[in-house]
Amino acid sequence: MSEDQPILQVKEVTKAFGGILALNRISFDVHEGDVLGIIGPNGSGKTTVVNCITGFIKMSSGKVYFRGKDISGKPPHKIADMGVTRTFQIMRPYYSLPAYKNLVIPLFSPRAKRTGGWRGGGKLGDRNTVGIDILEEIGFERDSYVPYKTASTLPTGYLKRLELARCLALKPEVILCDEVFSGLSMSEIASMVPLIERLQMDGITVVMIEHRLRELFRVANRVLVMNFGEKLIEGTPDEVMANEKVKEAYFGSEDVEEVMTHA
Amino acid sequence: MEQRRKERLDRGVKVRSDGLYALMSWRELSYLTLPRLVLILGIIVLPFVMPNMYWQRVISIVCIYALLALSFDFLAHFLGLVSLGGAFLIGVGGYISAILNTTFGLSPFVTIPIATIVGAAVCTLLLFPCLPLRGVYFAIVTLMYPLALKRVIEALDLFGGTNGILGVDSFPNSWVEQYFVIAMVLLFLFGTRRLVNTDLGLVFRAVKDNDQAVKASGMSITYYKAIAVFIASGMGCLGGACIVHIFMWSGISLFALDFSIIPIAATVIGGGGTLVGPVLGAFILVPISELLREFGTLRIVFYSLALMAFIVFRSEGIMVYGERKYHQFERWVKV
Ligand SMILES: Nc1ncnc2c1ncn2[C@@H]1O[C@H](COP(=O)(O)OP(=O)(O)OP(=O)(O)O)[C@@H](O)[C@H]1O
Ligand SMILES: [Mg+2]
Question: Which of A172, A200, A234 is at the close of a domain?
Fold first, then answer.
């Protein structure tokens, strides 16, 4: 990695829900082109980090910088408009609409008009067509009419892809993925891993929250471990695996090597 | 016991008319256009079949309520903003039109469009702080607006105070008056129906169903709510502007609660979310309320009973029921 400015800087971010400290002075940097994995036990504050960065909840204190610009406290649509997008752990498609119409909405946004969507070179074509194209690239089979099915009838795997597709429609610079693999079968995960790799090749910086360590460690080049709203350790996948504290906090008595090589 | 279940299937002609095939046969073309033609022609002949001046005037009033009902349905079912501020829109539009007419001597055909646009802007500006409110909170606050404005006008003796503004010009004659409001109802009815099917309309519905996802898509929900409130306010202010030229008078009775409540009842009867339904609802409800006028205050009792019966027995609304019967056939199947 070059020594230039990180694309995303999280500085001493704290979030308290009433008495509980969901985040306690957490700081980390994400460099352009990185795939940063965030892991941690349930309730350790991973989703809260994403919510704070993207403006969906107001942090109690701390700062977030995007390309050196302070974005803390900005409303979520402004942050998304700058190119920092997120998926929702609990998926939020427009259930009553067909899958491709789900993308017409983000494609209507000012950012999509400027950028032209994922592959668009600054020019946005017909929104329906662009939507179907994005869906096809992300794994919706065009010939089987899956893009035309109502979102409420789609299985989880497609809804997770639809979450990603909504981000891609904005031609984002950063995508924060909140557990896009959870609830998927092994084969579905296997088919989504190349997709994440493709995002990286496209120059999109990815932050991935994940419980599936094997797949995460394959795509991530840095990993951050959280526990009780604090940063436990940050480093390359190998460093994290070797760390004693991580073994204790996250895996309990289980041997990390075994988790990694299993299944 | 053998179990049975009602099955609903789209008629073949509906399925075919959803595509381009409709252009190929008269039968399918008429399937699409006939209901619209019946509606348009039905409304257009109404002034001719009315027995006297009094009932012709009722037609104009019905059209004003139809505009308000359309405005209510659009905001409630496509944006999720339940507005009880119909009287507020009528009042703002009415006063603007009356002032322009009496102080600058502009003709109704100039004051009405100005009152529509300026009124919509004023209403949107005043309602702007309430846009983040949801559901019943938005409803209550919008209900307070006409009451507050009425008090302000009374207390500060603005625009003629309790006497109102007298001597507002009328339309050239009653035919022009009726066909003007009828044309406006049809224009806005088909306009909003087209609007909700555009991509912008899709965004409106997205704001209602899933505002978090809209924010995550880089769009300000307040901005889209404001656009919709502007459109809906425009319809209400247009109605208000017409009223002052119909009655040749503008006063605090423009803030009457009727303008807030009857459009909602019309929407319930006609079928919310269909846009046509509320218009039909107004055409049913307002004349009934006129017929009951002879009974004095007792009419409120009849009125409420009729509404209650309706809600109990046909809660989906006339248009929802009608559309289903038109597009689908039903049959009982064994489970
Ligand atoms: N809106 C909220 N109000 C109150 N407490 C909250 C809220 N959101 C999260 N919390 C609390 O903050 C802590 C962190 O929650 P968070 O959802 O960020 O965890 P997580 O790491 O994403 O967990 P998981 O792996 O289950 O998704 C939890 O203790 C949770 O109960
Ligand atoms: Mg979470």
Answer: A172
* Ligand index nearest the alpha carbon of residue A39: 1
* Ligand 1 pocket mutation, candidates A46, A50, A210, criterion most atoms within 8 A of CB: A46
The answer as to whether A199 is a domain residue is no
Whether residues A92 and B202 touch (CB distance < 8 A) is answered with: no
The three-class DSSP label of residue A37 is strand
- Yes or no, beta carbons of B202 and A108 under 8 Å apart: yes
> What tens digit of pLDDT does each residue of B72-124 get?
999 999 999 999 999 999 999 999 999 999 999 999 999 999 999 999 999 99
Q: Which residues contact B281 (CB under 8 A, 6 or more apart)?
A: B69, B265, B266, B267, B268, B269, B270, B271, B317, B318
**Are B2 and B73 contained in the same domain?**
no
A20 Cα: distance to centroid of ligand 1 (angstroms): 10
Residue B207 lies in a domain: yes
Do A94 and A77 belong together in one domain?
no
Q: Burial, A262: exposed, middle or buried (Cβ in 10 Å; 0-12, 13-18, 19+)?
A: exposed
Cβ B218–A77 below 8 Å, yes or no? yes
One domain for residues A96 and A131: yes
The whole-model pTM stands at: 0.89
- My answer on whether B42 and B59 are in the same domain is no
Q: A57 falls in which pLDDT band (50, 70, 90)? A: very high
Which is it for strands A205-209 and A35-39: parallel, antiparallel or unpaired? parallel
